[in-house]
Design brief:
By secondary structure, the chain is of the alpha/beta class. The protein is built from ten helices and 14 strands. The chain has a seven-stranded parallel sheet, with helices on both faces.
């Protein structure tokens, strides 16, 4: 089996590449010319990489011709929610136009790969209390340019399946964490700050934003197994939530990391870390996906946070 991963150098892409290699896949990846490759350096010799710009249709087409994939995992994009407020046009261009270029290339080339498009729980946005836990049928009320861009990707997948028979499905992943998570994201940022404090490279103060928001967390190593299963077991043209079904507040995440710290720290709120609007609670229902695939998360969240903190201890 040949798989093509967009965003292979990223947090999720690197873990997915490892998983697919362990299953005997020939793994191809799209990379930008300026991509940092430290997440895949340990497996780089086992990969076939194609320099690609998702915003350039011809570039995308060349990568698909060169890789001739049986499966495509579309993970690339602008994934940092706060950045989408600062650069909404860039977010839309990369996420929406990039997805159009991918699906159009498959259509024009008359290829027939199975495609998993990585959506997001941010598509749900503002959720009423009586709508928890969130099912795939819930109304979409995105609260960020990023969330809106993922809704657009979701609709494109549906349209290309219905109009052209493209074998594409969407997974709406809720929060997933673990080693290699970028330090702009809250869990990884906290872990990096604590590791810096332990090494004496930062004053013993952890700077935080909104600690009241609650998120449904899954370990990234469980998430990539789910992505792979989606293309083996799920129906094309459909959307599937992938989540643990348990919500943790950001305060609980912080407390968990501080408990594992070797030093005493203080917590200080930073107004610059507050978002213009924030989703108060994201708690998902993945019954539809679990019934189709038999998937269930296996790694406790406490273990995820322990591994994330140790990841940063090795790097600061």
């Amino acid at each position: 089996m040949r798989a093509l991963i967009t965003g292979i150098t990223g947090f999720v892409g690197s873990h997915l590449a490892e998983h697919l290699l362990s299953k005997g896949y020939e793994v191809h990846g799209m990379i930008r010319w300026r991509s940092k490759t430290e997440n895949i350096d340990h497996i780089k010799k086992q990969l076939k990489l194609h320099e690609t710009d998702l915003r350039d249709a011809h570039s995308v087409e060349r990568a698909i011709v060169a890789s001739d994939p049986d499966e495509i995992y579309h993970l690339a994009g602008q994934s940092y929610v706060p950045a989408s407020w600062d650069y909404p046009e860039n977010t839309m261009t990369i996420n929406v136009i990039g997805t159009i270029n991918l699906l159009e290339s498959v259509r024009r080339l008359d290829k027939d790969p199975r495609i998993q498009l990585a959506g997001s729980s941010e598509e749900y946005g503002f959720v009423h209390p009586n709508e928890i836990p969130i099912k795939e049928t819930n109304q979409l009320r995105p609260l960020s340019p990023y969330g809106i861009s993922k809704v657009a990707e979701d609709m494109l997948a549906f349209q290309y399946h219905r109009s052209y028979g493209i074998k594409v499905l969407t997974t709406r992943a809720f929060n997933h964490e673990g080693p290699r998570r970028g330090d702009v994201f809250v869990t990884s940022n906290f872990a990096r700050q604590i590791a810096m404090i332990e090494k004496g490279k930062q004053e013993p103060i952890v700077h935080v934003g909104n600690l009241e928001a609650k998120r449904d967390y899954t370990d990234v190593r469980d998430m990539v197994k789910a992505y792979n299963l989606s293309l083996q077991k799920c129906d094309f043209g459909e959307t599937y939530n992938i989540c643990s079904g348990k919500a943790w507040s950001i305060q609980q995440v912080l407390d968990m990391l501080i408990k594992n710290s070797t030093v005493k720290v203080k917590v200080q709120q930073d107004k610059d870390r507050m978002r213009p609007s924030d989703v108060p609670l994201l708690l998902g229902d993945s019954t539809k996906f679990r019934q189709k695939t038999g998937w269930a998360p296996t790694i406790p969240f406490e273990k995820t946070m322990e591994d994330l903190l140790n990841y940063w201890r090795e790097r600061v």
